[in-house]
Amino acid sequence: MGMPSSSTMHVFSAVQLRDLARTGWLAGIAAQASKAERRVMTGAAYEIVYPIVFARLTRALELSRGHTVCAKGVDRLAEECVDGFHDDVEAVVEDFLTHCRNPVQNLEAWIGGRVRAATVDAHRRRRGERGALQRPRLPGWLSAALDDDRWLTTLATRILVWVGVETTAGGQVWPFESWAGERASRTGDWLGSTPAVVAREIETVLSVMRSRPGWYESYVERPLGRKQAPLAATPDLAQPVADPYASTDSELRRLAGEAVTAIDNRCRVGEDTRAVVVDVIRRVFGGTFAAGLERAPHATPDPLGGVTGALADAATVNRIVGTVRAIIADTD
Q1: Which DSSP category does 156 fall into?
Q2: Which range is least confidently modeled, 93-97, 186-190, 256-260, 264-268?
Q3: pTM of the complete model
């Protein structure tokens, strides 16, 4: 029996795509499909592919960024992460429909084995189309001009990556909040890692980049100009801004810094890390949370809801202990 033509296929469901993959006819059918049929096949393929991409790529990527909430599921992805996830799924779907030419019995394993190569190729292609560096690496002159500072060189790399992706930061040019969180985890400076500080550091890095106008115009200014415009003007983060969440964020950073310092001090004198973590978290976060008490109930979410209660769960404690150990190791 020969390969059926796409015209004989009235509906392309996920089940049908699996059947075609088992016969080895999928890529051939997709190649001869009309635009309308290709759209239907793409939708069905998306249904198969997106859980695999999340499990094989996105979850680990979000954890490496410190986005523990995003790593919990597709429906928990933050706005700054969801576009990238859809780009990755789109790349894998295209790869699936183009290269599934031989019989495949275990489709999840076959797709999973191609996820990284497919997404990396697509990512580099999109960056190239935008004029950004396909493999963002800091040139030696830039690293030297930043005194090889661990955080500033990391921030410079983040800038070079950011200008080449479609993702936007809402009404801002740069993802200040996200980078402030990364700054805190990398430097251990939990109190000083604010969006305003990061905004000033971004300008410091950009001023060094501008010292080579041709390089800056090619790899920063031009690709950045091709990103979707911010939804609103970027605020001057160096100036105080009225923010109903500001006191909450400030208090959380203060408490986090206090907790890390206390844990570090006690672990250095030989106390058991696990016991110290549980005790300090209960002491620091278990009391009354002052920030937000001036606002009406439920006006803002409870930032500490369930924190101390979660210490009863062994898996949660293990994750916290692992994170704390990594933070202390980074600051040594």
Answers
A1: H
A2: 256-260
A3: 0.47
158-185 pLDDT, tens digit per residue, is 998 888 877 666 678 898 988 998 898 8
266, pLDDT greater than 90: no
Q: Check the CA dihedral 22-28-30-36 and report its sign.
A: negative
Mean pLDDT of 133-162: 89
Domain regions of the chain by residue span: 7-129, 140-225, 246-331
First-last CA distance in the chain? 67
Both tokens assigned to 263: 């844990």
In which element (H, E) is residue 5 found?
A: none
Residue of 132, 124, 126, 123 whose CA lies nearest to 218: 132
By the 10 Å C-beta count (0-12 exposed, 13-18 middle, 19+ buried), 78 is classed as middle
d(CA 119, CA 127): 12
CA distances 247 to 68, 194, 244, 291, 307, Å, are 23, 12, 7, 6, 19
Q: Cα separation of 160 and 140, whole Å?
A: 14
DSSP state of 300: S
